[in-house]
Specification:
Layout: H1 5-10, H2 13-18, H3 24-58, H4 62-90, H5 92-110, H6 116-144, H7 147-158, H8 160-176, H9 181-189, H10 195-201, H11 206-211, H12 215-233, H13 255-258, H14 264-285, H15 288-294, H16 299-310, H17 313-326, H18 329-351, H19 357-381, H20 391-443, H21 452-456
Helix pairs in contact: 3-4, 3-6, 3-7, 3-8, 3-9, 3-10, 3-15, 4-5, 4-6, 4-20, 5-6, 5-9, 6-7, 6-20, 7-17, 7-19, 8-16, 14-20, 15-16, 16-19, 17-18, 17-19, 18-19, 18-20
């Protein structure tokens, strides 16, 4: 049944987007947002490979190096909190673009730092931009992709994280052999020019426009998307609209929704998940290169080992993209966290026993398989738990709480290392992942295959 333009405006935007077949338009939108996500993660991953060189140049103790490694996470916490609130108030697209400018400027300034204090300040600015961009990428993707493939695309987008981790390592390997860590930060600033691609090709979220009562603008964007989908698939008509829950959204929006009676349990669950998962992940990964150097490897060799280990993250996120749609979000999340805990503990045992190179690489690759798979599930699950009027705030606050864990992680490792050695460091990481798994197992809900509006209500 063909609807008139006036009737289409009365149909919920989400219902119109959900009935669309996934095609080249969705994949192009995915590619643009995922590439911006990749560039952001590239900057974030650099510190893993550069911390050892920075520590040597400035003569830092392990505790001081840990605090420097944590500086960007302070900025990321502030950025994630502010971007969520701002995006729910002013829109996803403008805040997304501002975040790219901030991290580009921050990365450039890091290349000019002449003291650890100045570098820490610039890392904080860089973190501000990165913290703003990451939750907005997952929010934007979740609001465009239909429920039947949303989990797969969100998981694949986060798969850019291990790829960025590996690319940062390869860049470090070649750049550090001829230049300094400052050159790496300078190179990391140039992708901010990708802003112009985002500005041209990524529309504002129709779901957000509708939540603000801007129905005509939302309908206009969906009209254009529908025409593109029909042209690309050579369709004469689109599938029939199947209304989900069509009740009007309440006026309450932003942070107040997170603590409402309906969403309080989800908020506490996702905060616990992000806090412990990121404390364990960044506590270990920020230090992996430096720990390998402490074991006797040279700078270039430790970078190369870290890159090889990170390759295990690629099948990890691909498996997670399959698991979130086949098994569901909750079992996939628990599996990756428990698997990560087991392999972190095993890697700690292996790394502390003077192993041969192959044993170290295999155990490290299995550790990264589960840890990067965990990231893919995390970014899939979180935006699905909140309604449009508070989705960016929910993702931003979860990321903010996670960044508190990120901030504590490298610092705790710097404090634990002299007391308990590398075995104690990896034990700490394993316990963090187990705590996150227990929280999700006990309190998490399942969201697989449901429209965002259905989950919200």
């Amino acid at each position: 049944m063909k609807l008139t333009p006036l009737e289409l405006m009365r149909v919920r935007t989400g219902d119109r987007l959900e009935r669309l077949p996934v095609c080249g338009y969705h994949r192009s939108l995915f590619a643009i947002i995922a590439l911006a996500f990749f560039f952001d993660n590239l900057d974030l991953a650099m510190m893993t490979y550069l911390l050892g060189s920075i520590r040597t140049e400035f003569g830092l103790t392990s505790a001081q190096a840990g605090m420097l490694g944590s500086a960007s996470f302070v900025g990321m916490g502030i950025g994630a909190l502010s971007s969520g609130v701002l995006a729910d108030k002013f829109g996803r697209k403008p805040v997304f673009q501002v975040s790219m400018i901030i991290w580009g400027v921050g990365s450039y300034l890091c290349s000019t730092a002449d003291s650890p204090q100045v570098l820490a300040a610039y890392r904080l600015l860089l973190g501000l931009g990165m913290g703003m961009e990451l939750p907005l990428a997952q929010t934007l993707m979740s609001e465009f992709i239909p429920a039947r493939q949303r989990g797969k695309y969100l998981a694949l987008m986060d798969g850019n994280w291990p790829i960025a981790f590996i690319c940062a390592g390869l860049m470090s390997y070649y750049v550090l052999s001829a230049y300094t860590w400052r050159t790496m930060f300078l190179l990391g600033a140039t992708p901010a020019l990708f802003l112009f691609v985002v500005r041209r090709y990524v529309p504002e979220s129709p779901r957000w426009l509708e939540s603000k009562g801007r129905h005509e603008e939302a309908s206009g964007i969906v009209d254009r998307i529908e025409k593109v989908v029909m042209r690309k698939l050579k369709l004469s008509s689109l599938p029939e609209i199947m209304p989900a829950l069509s009740a009007a959204e309440p006026e309450t929006s932003g942070l107040r929704v997170l603590w409402s009676r309906e969403y309080r349990s989800r908020t506490l669950t996702v905060w616990g998940l992000w806090f412990f998962a990121l404390l364990g992940f960044y506590g270990l990964n920020t230090w992996i290169g430096a720990l390998l150097q402490q074991s006797g490897l040279g700078v270039s060799q430790s970078v190369l080992y870290t890159v090889y280990i990170s390759i295990g993250g690629i099948p990890g996120f691909l498996w997670a993209a399959f698991a979130v749609e086949r098994w569901g979000r909750k079992p996939a999340c628990v599996t990756t966290l428990v698997g990560g805990a087991c392999m972190v503990f095993l890697y700690g045992k292996v790394a502390g026993s003077n192993p041969d190179a192959m044993t170290l690489l295999i155990s490290g690759g299995m550790m990264q398989f589960f840890m990067f798979g965990m990231w893919a599930v995390l970014y899939t699950y979180t935006p699905e738990l909140y309604p449009t009027r508070a989705r960016a705030s929910g993702c931003g606050m979860a990321s903010t709480v996670g960044r508190i864990g990120s901030l504590l992680g490298p610092t705790l490792v710097g404090l634990v290392l002299p007391i308990a050695g590398q075995a104690g460091v990896f034990c700490l990481g394993a316990l963090c992942f187990l705590a996150a798994a227990m929280i999700v197992y006990r309190f998490g809900i399942e969201t697989r295959g449901k429209a965002l509006e259905t989950i919200a209500e």
